[in-house]
Amino acid sequence: MANIEKVIIIGSGPAGWTAAIYAARANLSPLVLAGRPKSVPSLVLPGGQLMLTTEVENYPGFPQGVTGPSLMAALEQQAVRFGTRIVTDDGLSPDVSNPDDGHTAKYHDCKAVDFSSRPFKVIGEDDTTYQAHSVVVATGATANWIGLESEQRLALSGGGVSACAVCDGAMPMFRDKELAVVGGGDSAIEEATYLTKFASKVYIIHRRNELRASKIMARRAMDNPKVEVLWNKVVDEVLGDERITGLRLKDTKTGELGERAVSGLFVAIGHTPATQFLAGQLELNEKGYIKLKDSYRTTTSVEGVFAAGDVADSVYRQAITAAAMGCKSAIDAERWLADQGIQ
Ligand code: NAP
Prior knowledge:
By secondary structure, the protein is an alpha/beta fold. It folds into two domains: 4-142 and 271-339, FAD/NAD(P)-binding domain (3-Layer(bba) Sandwich), CATH 3.50.50; 145-267, FAD/NAD(P)-binding domain. It has eight helices and 20 strands. The chain has helices spanning 14-25, 68-81, 99-102, 149-156, 165-168, 186-195, 215-222, 319-339; strands at residues 4-10, 31-33, 55-56, 66-67, 85-88, 91-92, 110-114, 120-124, 129-137, 141-143, 161-162, 178-182, 201-205, 227-230, 233-239, 246-251, 257-261, 264-267, 271-273, 305-307. Strands 1, 2, 5, 6, 7, 8, 9 and 20 form an eight-stranded mixed β-sheet that branches. A hairpin with a 4-residue loop joins strand 8 and strand 9 (129-137). The longest helix has 21 residues, at 319-339. The mean pLDDT is 90. NADP nicotinamide-adenine-dinucleotide phosphate is lined by residues 58, 146, 182-188, 190, 207-208, 212, 234, 268-271, 317. The site of NADP nicotinamide-adenine-dinucleotide phosphate (NAP) has 19 residues, from helix 6.
């Protein structure tokens, strides 16, 4: 019979890597299917949403801040140091201390699971079936799009529409140009503020007359002379054939249409949990997030399957809260395995 893993961790954001660090240090020799970013196809590295972030200023222990990719690389190295194995095209566990090795290997996605019987089955993107006594799901959430054909066409062709300012904003096509960010939450504010480094002006297009973002971040953006908020507006159409030339905006109060010339559009309107591959296997809430049996724990509707990070948390969604849940999930898995007599 094929090898049965003690614990498989699906996902590689702060939750997944922290679960791996704790599980590895508990001698569970975790196996990680790290996956790849979905919202930004050009990115190949695992590490979740933090791979799309520049400065993380609120992760404790970094008084000067730390970049998202550096933080994720450090967590990955720490997990591997204690015996975590990562599934890649080149076999298990690339040398992550060497970026030329660890980061050229293609990390594998999980495409399906079968939690209906034990051992649990986790199916990789190449159809390999892995068996496990316990599973931690830490697949996070991916960026939402407005849903316009013109938006998708120009996003896919590299025509100046993106869901990640931090990944794409520094490109020459956006330098000294007028750009737009859609959304009114912390992400929109963060992206707009970031884009002011390159752009001549950044419009924040928000569908209401009040931002959802935290006051301190909103103030930082509003105080920036390059930022202007266009209140009560939605994007009705992205204009341009091969490159974005502007936006047709609709006033949400009056229905009035107007045009605004911009050379880039950055969509920052929230996220969707990466749970499609779990359909029918775990209980999800109405927004698709994994339902925890007890909000204090990481237990799910299936005994032996645990969830950590943004995939099960639509409220806090912070790197530190995801890492904390990753820690809890590994401890929950370890105790559950011990109760089953699996050491
Ligand atoms: P969010 O808080 O859910 O905000 C999404 C924004 O997009 C809202 O303003 C929403 O409008 C708007 N929106 C949603 N669908 C839309 C549509 N179809 N058309 C136009 N606008 C639409 O998402 P987020 O900004 O990504 O933040 C998610 C979480 O991460 C939050 O908890 C946030 O605090 C956190 N975060 C923290 C930081 C940081 O601290 N550095 C940075 C980024 C994110 P309404 O307001 O009208 O609903």
